């Protein structure tokens, strides 16, 4: 997430990171935490972390999480954290297997994303990065798609509560950002934009162009669904045709982004064909 730096000033960037993020561990699963450990180790060895402010995450407490999830669902996550045989609310599935300490691990990621939002909102950073976050599929009452607690929705609600009037959410993960769209589908203060693989060919099966919001939020949801095998040229053409103009017209106070790297052509679970160069151009 980020905001434009004042004219004449360099960019101040913050990374929210702690080893506790590695506890979000489904075991033998595509969401292995080693990807986070390797990313931070590489960034440290290349000197990237020397250019950032690194802060430790703190867990989100129950009142904060209740702005995103129901009390019954939070209790289910607590129960699943100590009862390996628990089933319900999307927990215990192949996508979302249970593990001991799950509630605390999830609350730490959510709390870190909340902290990142406040770092930007209070001007301590122009950009804040949470590489453990982006759990955009979790719904108010269920886990889904490797996501148990929706840290993105918590970050956006935190910004709204802090005084933000307009927030643009841009999701370039290969999967539709369904949990975030649902949370703000009728809220005109939040523009949700998702670019993803055609939902007729990939989970979660939502994110068609006809999904535009409802009620006061009608027109505040944009979805760009791209066919399998779309590479850099086609993806960037679609991105540049829609995203910068839509965000500029909306005039947000702050930008929240989900920059999932599973659009890469080597990702084994999806079918888009971007390279690192294409991804970097969108981020830029």
Report on the architecture of this protein:
The chain is of the alpha/beta class and 284 residues long. It is 33% helix and 12% strand. The chain contains eight helices and seven strands; from the N terminus they run βαβαααβαβαββαβα. The chain has helices at 34-45, 62-65, 71-82, 102-121, 151-162, 178-183, 232-250, 276-283; strands spanning 13-16, 53-55, 127-129, 167-171, 190-197, 221-226, 254-258. The strands form two sheets. The protein has a four-stranded parallel beta sheet, with helices on both faces. α1 (34-45) links the parallel β1 and β2 (53-55). The longest helix has 20 residues, at 102-121. It is globular and about 50 Å long. The mean pLDDT is 95.
- What sort of overall outline do the alpha carbons produce when their principal axes are compared? globular
The whole-number mean of residue pLDDT values reads 95
Main β-sheet description = 4 strands, parallel
Number of strands: 7
How far apart are the first and last residues' alpha carbons, in Å? 13 Å
How do the strands of the widest beta sheet line up side by side? 6-5-4-7
Radius of gyration: 18 Å
Run of helices and strands = EHEHHHEHEHEEHEH
* Oligomeric grouping of the chains: single chain
Number of helices: 8
What class would the helix/strand composition place it in? alpha/beta
The poorly predicted ranges are none
What level of helicity do the residues show?
A: 25-40%
Short structural description:
The strands form two sheets. The chain has a four-stranded parallel sheet, sandwiched between helices.
């Amino acid at each position: 997430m980020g905001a434009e730096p004042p004219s004449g000033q360099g960019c101040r960037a913050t990374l929210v990171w702690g080893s506790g993020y590695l506890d979000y561990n489904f075991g033998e699963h595509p969401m292995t935490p080693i990807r986070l450990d390797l990313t931070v180790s590489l960034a440290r060895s290349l000197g990237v972390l020397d250019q950032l402010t690194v802060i430790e995450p703190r867990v989100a407490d129950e009142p904060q999480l209740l702005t995103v999830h129901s009390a019954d669902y939070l209790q289910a996550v607590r129960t699943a954290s100590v009862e390996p045989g628990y089933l319900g609310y999307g927990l215990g599935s192949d996508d979302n297997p249970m593990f001991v300490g799950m509630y605390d691990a999830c609350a730490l990621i959510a709390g870190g994303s909340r902290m990142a939002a406040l770092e930007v909102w209070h001007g301590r950073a122009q950009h804040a990065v949470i590489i453990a976050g982006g759990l955009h599929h979790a719904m108010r009452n269920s886990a889904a798609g490797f996501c148990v607690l929706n840290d993105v929705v918590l970050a956006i609600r935190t910004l709204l509560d802090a005084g933000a009037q307009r927030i643009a959410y841009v999701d370039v993960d290969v999967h539709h950002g369904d949990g975030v769209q649902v949370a703000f589908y009728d809220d005109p203060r939040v523009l949700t934009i998702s670019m993803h693989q055609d939902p007729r060919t990939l989970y979660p099966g939502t994110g068609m162009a006809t999904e535009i919001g409802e009620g006061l939020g009608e027109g505040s949801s944009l979805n760009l669904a791209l066919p399998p095998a779309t590479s850099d040229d086609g993806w960037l053409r679609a991105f540049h045709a829609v995203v910068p103009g839509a965000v500029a017209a909306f005039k947000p106070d702050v930008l929240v982004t989900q920059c999932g790297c599973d659009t890469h052509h080597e990702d084994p679970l999806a079918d888009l064909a971007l390279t690192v160069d294409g991804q970097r151009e969108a981020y830029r």
